[in-house]
């Protein structure tokens, strides 16, 4: 898929076909359920959820889905993310393996609490 200037997460998701679109939609729903008060936007050209600052980002690539919960989100779930390819604040979910939606939900809930505490909104 060529790089485009998406205005909404829905527009981004709809630029993909088939299974990739279905996975992106399910990730969006998973994040929405875990962080119902978060707002949706496009940052860095990819889907972003915000709540007192950036919460998580995600994006589709040729062979994987990138999920970006910030380094703190990775650190808090060090053991759970071990089976996946990771980088600083980055998780890669291979498109040929099941996507760990429960883990995504847990990380998002952690990030919500973390951002609320940072913002003094607890």
UniProtKB/TrEMBL annotation:
YdhG-like domain segment(s): 21-112
Pfam families: DUF1801
Gene3D superfamilies, A to Z: 3.90.1150.200
InterPro entries: YdhG-like (IPR014922)
Record's protein name: Iron chaperone
Originating organism: Shivajiella indica
Lineage: Bacteria, Pseudomonadati, Bacteroidota, Cytophagia, Cytophagales
């Amino acid at each position: 898929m060529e790089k485009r200037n998406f205005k909404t997460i829905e527009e981004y998701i709809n630029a993909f076909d088939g299974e990739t679109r279905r996975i992106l939609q399910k990730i969006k729903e998973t994040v929405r359920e875990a962080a119902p008060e978060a707002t949706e936007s496009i940052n860095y050209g990819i889907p972003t959820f915000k709540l007192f600052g950036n919460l998580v980002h995600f994006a589709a690539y040729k062979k994987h889905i990138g999920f970006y919960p910030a380094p703190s989100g990775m650190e808090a779930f060090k053991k759970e993310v071990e089976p996946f390819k990771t980088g600083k604040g980055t998780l890669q979910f291979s498109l040929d393996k099941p996507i760990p939606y429960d883990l995504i939900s847990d990380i998002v809930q952690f990030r919500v609490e973390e951002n609320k505490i940072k913002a003094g909104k607890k």
